[in-house]
Amino acid sequence: MENVLIIRYGEIMLKGDNKSFFEAKLTKHIRGAVKDLGDVKVYKMHSRVYIDVEDFNADEIIERVKKVFGVVCISPAVRFPVDFDVIKETALNQIKEEMAQRGVKTFKVESKRVDKKFPLKSPEMSREIGGYILENTEGLEVDVHNPEVRVYVEVRECSFVFTKKVYGFGGLPLGTNGKALLLLSGGIDSPVAGWLVAKRGVEIHGMHFHSYPFTSERAKEKVVDLAKILTTYCGRIKLYSVNLLAIQKEINEKCPEEEMTILSRRFMMKIAERVANKIGCDALVTGESIGQVASQTVKGLHVTNAAVELPVFRPLIAMDKVDIMDLARKIDTYETSILPFEDCCTVFLPKRPVTQPRLEKILRSEALLDVEGLIESAIGDMEVERISLDDE
Ligand SMILES: Nc1ncnc2c1ncn2[C@@H]1O[C@H](COP(=O)(O)OP(=O)(O)OP(=O)(O)O)[C@@H](O)[C@H]1O
Q1: Does ligand 1 have an atom closer than 6 angstroms to the CB of 204?
Q2: What pTM did the predictor assign?
């Protein structure tokens, strides 16, 4: 009898001829996530990935594998050659363990017969195993609708018995859908936006704008911390830091005060696009959401968008703030995002930012600036940091 983790994936199954490419990537990422935990054997077999584990105490492995995009759910299971008597006994033992640990009183057996040569059909298996459990326990009842514990039995090339399903985030394996550059502020939204795009298999890198020395070192470190949290899902991220201060000063001097935010945002987009093109990213990602702040009106988004040609992915565009916050908590970025450090956008915060900008007017203001020179100089001073899971 062996202890294994069964790792299931969802959407990859629909990939037709490309399925094996996606499976290979997923297996590689799962291996990468656990490689420093010792000699952990990870392998793919019959449209699932398995990990051999010493015992059921595989919490750390499960915690990490759960974060690998593409993983739908994980079950710690026992595997053994197909033998119905052993199946019944193992199911009984697992229920007894649940009774001892959690005091469960109701259960249901869910069986699956994949090997059609096995003589009992799935419902017959469930009935017999359920009957055997009832005969050999006291105070336990079957509840088919809302059981406290489900005992899963599978008859495939081997038998599997388990009681737990730990859910991952689904999505597609990282690196199966190209590369994008995330505009990563220290706020709540952009880390969530990057996470959502990465979940679709896109390798992401980050670009942060600061106004040092008006913004502090600690504010920059906060963004590095956020990028580190993202690497627990994405493995590694290159973080590009750009000082926007010279640009902001120039806008402040030459353009109408109320256009500061929208003009700065257009510079951010242009700089990000320039760097994205250099490093092979085919899209930008932002945490913008309609109506959330003054610059995120539909007109504001239009004017921001018009600064670049690359596609801009805004996965939060129609989400409410509370839902974004919930997701931030789920992916562990929230607590870091709410730390009170200043952002470059607050350095020259206009009293009444324009909320309904007209593109022609913004372009006229922009023409007062040496856009090209300012961009080149900001990129020239850019810093790059390679952040990876192994950094600690
Ligand atoms: N300093 C920055 N560095 C990098 N990107 C930024 C910066 N400030 C804003 N952005 C990008 O522009 C988007 C909109 O920023 P804005 O400040 O208008 O909204 P927000 O709701 O506060 O966003 P966030 O919560 O992500 O900071 C951000 O989600 C981010 O993608």
Answers
A1: no
A2: 0.93
